[in-house]
Structure formats: C-alpha cells, structure tokens
Amino acid sequence: MGLRAFFDRIEPSFVKGGKYEKYFPLYEMVESFIYTPRTVTTVAPHARSYIDMKRIMTYVVLATIPTLLFGLYNTGLQTNMAIAEFGPSGWRAAIIETLGIGFNFNNPLANMAHGLLYFLPIYIVTLVAGGIFEVIFAVVRKHEVNEGFLVTSMLYTLILPASTPLWQVALGIIFGVVIGKEVFGGTGKNFLNPALVGRAFLYFAYPAYMSGDSIWTPVDGFSGATALAISAADGHQVLPENGITWMDAFVGTIQGSFGETSTLMILVGLGFLLFTKIANWRLIVGCLGGMIAFSTLLNVIGSDTNPLFAMPWHWHLVVGGYAFGLVFMVTEPVSASHTNLGRYIYGALIGFMVVMIRVINPAFPEGMMLAILFGNVFAPLIDYFVIQANIKRRAKRHA
C-alpha cells in the first residue's frame, strides 16, 4: 500500500463524524507536511497562484539554510578557539573526545560538529515545546496546524545564544507561540512576530542569560564582548585592535547568536527570497533607507561622550542582529504593513528605531529585536493612514 493510499484510507476516521474527529488537526498536520494541501476554492472568483502557505513557509526555511550552516561552523569555531585557551568541559566536549573529532579550530569538520551539538538540543526542545502548544490550540479550536511554526521554530533558534539553558528555550518558545500568536487566533492573525516575542520574553525575564560578555561562547571561564558592546564602550574604530575587521563581521566569524553573525550568508538567503518573490523588496529598501539616513545624520551631529554616534551605516549593517532581522523578520508578511507605501514607511521606521535604540539608549546596544516589535505594533496604523490618504486623494480627483 502506498503512502497516499494509506492517508486516504484513514482519513474518514478523522473528518467530521469520524471516530477520531477531534484529532483531525494532527492528521492534517502530518498529511499536509508530506503532501501539498488539497484545499481549493469552490465558488467564484478563483485566484490562481503557484504560491500557497506550505510553499511560502518551505521557501523561508530553505532561505535560512546558508545562515544555519555557517552558524554551526562559527559556533564551533568560537567554542574551539576558547577551548584552546581554557580547556574542554561539559557533555558536548566529552562526545567530541569520544568520537575522536577533536577541538582543532582550523578543522571545519570539528567546528561544524561542535556547533551542531549546541544547535540540535535547542532546536529539538523548540520543536517539541512549541509544537505541543500548537497542537493543543489546534485540537481545542478545531483548526489545522499550520506550517508557520516550522519557520517560527527555526528563526527562534537562530536568534538565541548557544549557551541558552534548555528550560529557558522551552519557556521562550511557549510564550512566543501562545502570547505572540495563538491568543490572537493563530497563524495569519498575529500582529507580532512570534519568534521575536519569545526572544524578548527571555531577554527581559532572564537578562543575565541573554546579554553580557560571557554568554556568546559557551565555554566555562571565557568572556568576550560582541562587536556592538566594544563599539558602545570605545567606538567602532577599536574593533580591528580587538581582532574584528569589517570583513570578519561581514563573513560572520565573530561572537553572536547562532544565525545572526554572517551578513554574507544572510544576503544569500535574501537573494533566494527575492527571487521566489516571498520577500517584498519595498520593506528591505525602507529599512535600509531608514538605517542609513539616521546613522548618517548621527555621524554628522557627532558626540564627545557617545562613541556610537560615529559608527557609519556599513558597520551597523554587519554587527548585531540587524542583517538577520532585516531579511527574515522585517519581511515577515503577516506582521508587516500590507500597502506598498506603507511598506516603505514601516521599513524606514524600523531602520530609524534600531539606530536610535543602539546609539541613544546606553543600556541596550543592539536594538533590532525591539525595533521590529515596535514596527509590528504600528504596522496596522500605518496601513490605515495610507489607505485613508488614498481615499481622500481619489475623492478629490473625482469631485
């Protein structure tokens, strides 16, 4: 019996009136994961498109693969470099030693293997904890389990430090799924990005585990500031003295969360999203424009006490989570603006806010997470005023 025939045979037990009717969301989740959804419109008008929810989510996950692979390599690289100074510790190091892979940071295989041992537990916990609550809400509400959680789980994992305790990983994704999405009705009805909601919850609930110099490289005794932290303290001009060139930051061989360090790999993902028309280029242009304009203005104004005023836009682009947020969060279609003019404004607002938070707020030298959530809140209002302006303009034209 083929797999398609198997699903067709058991489907009557899960549809309305079947023995396992209340578990239909579980059946639909598995069936639609393997096969393209068969739901079609039955009444006019008919909109024909090769894009559906499953394809959109699949493309976004595919776009993260270059970033993911480099994240594994860089996490292992930073860890193995620290081990060379402080020595190995923990169960992951024991596995590496048992397998005979070693801790040579000049060996790409050793770096990838070590990075994978940090990524996999976090990703598995994210899938299990968040997936359970997705299924619970789907069963209670009698609606399908959307593929959107696959994207949320991947993005959430990629914006976490490798040292994040697994119990915090579970708490964060549960909060993001329930408070960021399900309380508003589920996929397509949320106005905040669920992955960022979960990350923000962890940042404010457990700041010692989400910020500081000791969290980015998970080796006991190691402490190293990120490029943004160094710039906030002494200016971006001293980054080369600390072993961080602009090219290092662009390629991604610096400290940071799993998927946020390599602007190069992130841009590869952006190219794929633009080619497949999943990402709207207006959001990218708006966010880049807002960031470049405001950072350049601060460069002109200058400051004798705040070295971040002097950081040029091309450094803002490659440090912290700006590039990752720009490509995978700003372009998220549900929580972004939906009008063309609104997309420019929405993107520019986020670009402006990230620089303002990074530079003006001395306690938080990152900013992209909060800037995007701030933009999410104002996206409906932006679209409202854009639509009202269009209505007034057309009314005057035909008056």
UniProtKB/TrEMBL annotation:
EC number: 7.2.1.1
Keywords: Cell inner membrane, Cell membrane, Flavoprotein, FMN, Ion transport, Membrane, NAD, Phosphoprotein, Sodium, Sodium transport, Translocase, Transmembrane, Transmembrane helix, Transport, Ubiquinone
A GO BP entry: transmembrane transport
Its membrane topology: Multi-pass membrane protein
InterPro entries: NqrB (IPR010966), NqrB/RnfD (IPR004338)
Coiled coil: none
FMN phosphoryl threonine: modified positions: 226
Main localization (coarse): membrane
Source species, domain of life: Bacteria
Catalytic reaction annotation: a ubiquinone + n Na(+)(in) + NADH + H(+) = a ubiquinol + n Na(+)(out) + NAD(+)
Localization terms from the record: Cell membrane
GO MF term (any one): FMN binding
GO-annotated cellular components: plasma membrane
Transmembrane segments: 56-77, 89-105, 117-140, 155-179, 191-209, 257-276, 283-301, 313-331, 343-361, 367-387
Cofactor(s), by name: FMN
Assigned protein family: Belongs to the NqrB/RnfD family.
Job description of the protein: NQR complex catalyzes the reduction of ubiquinone-1 to ubiquinol by two successive reactions, coupled with the transport of Na(+) ions from the cytoplasm to the periplasm. NqrA to NqrE are probably involved in the second step, the conversion of ubisemiquinone to ubiquinol.
NCBIfam families: nqrB, PRK05349.1
Protein name: Na(+)-translocating NADH-quinone reductase subunit B
Organism: Marinovum algicola
Phylogenetic classification of the source organism: Bacteria, Pseudomonadati, Pseudomonadota, Alphaproteobacteria, Rhodobacterales
The encoding gene: nqrB
